[in-house]
């Protein structure tokens, strides 16, 4: 009878130890997951803020599809590509955007067509300045080579 009681007590002790170990392992794994998620969130915070600023500048913010969004900490600016719906409900195609340090959003403008006028040359110059800002945001130097 004593051996049976000792066996049951030993079995219960092992069961309690295994249960406590399993619970601790689960708790530890959950803490690691939470810490990794918080780290990822902190890492993506500037990019998420950039996306929110761009969404606010769109006609249909919920339709925004982002690609290659980058935050440049030196410039304190962000850039990337966005595709969103226009007033007619159709997607416009991927457009470059730049969010400056003051929260101003600039979108890529199409190049003017037809014969050159002062207005079209001015638009081309603005497009060139925009492209230079985008290259700086991406941290790339333009070499002038084709």
Compact summary:
This protein has 146 residues and is an alpha+beta fold.
Provide the domain count: 1
Q: How are the strands of the largest sheet arranged?
A: 1-2-3-4
Q: What is the N-to-C order of secondary-structure elements (H for helix, E for strand)?
A: HEEEEH
Unreliable residue runs: 141-146
Question: What's the overall average pLDDT, rounded?
Answer: 83
- The helix tally amounts to 2
Radius of gyration (Å): 28 Å
Portion in beta strands: 15-25%
Please report the total strand number as a whole number.
4
Derived structural class: alpha+beta
- Gross morphology is rod-shaped
Largest sheet: 4 strands, antiparallel
Ends distance: 92 Å
Please bin the fraction of helical residues.
40-55%
Question: How is this structure best described in words?
Answer:
By secondary structure, this protein is an alpha+beta fold. It has one domain. The protein has helices spanning 2-56, 118-138, and strands at residues 65-72, 77-83, 95-99, 105-107. The chain has a 4-stranded antiparallel sheet with strand order 1-2-3-4, sandwiched between helices. Strand 3 (95-99) and strand 4 form a beta hairpin. The radius of gyration is 28 Å and the shape is rod-shaped. Residues 141-146 have low confidence and may be disordered.
Question: What's the topology here?
Answer:
Blueprint: H1 2-56, E1 65-72, E2 77-83, E3 95-99, E4 105-107, H2 118-138
Antiparallel strand pairs: 1-2, 2-3, 3-4
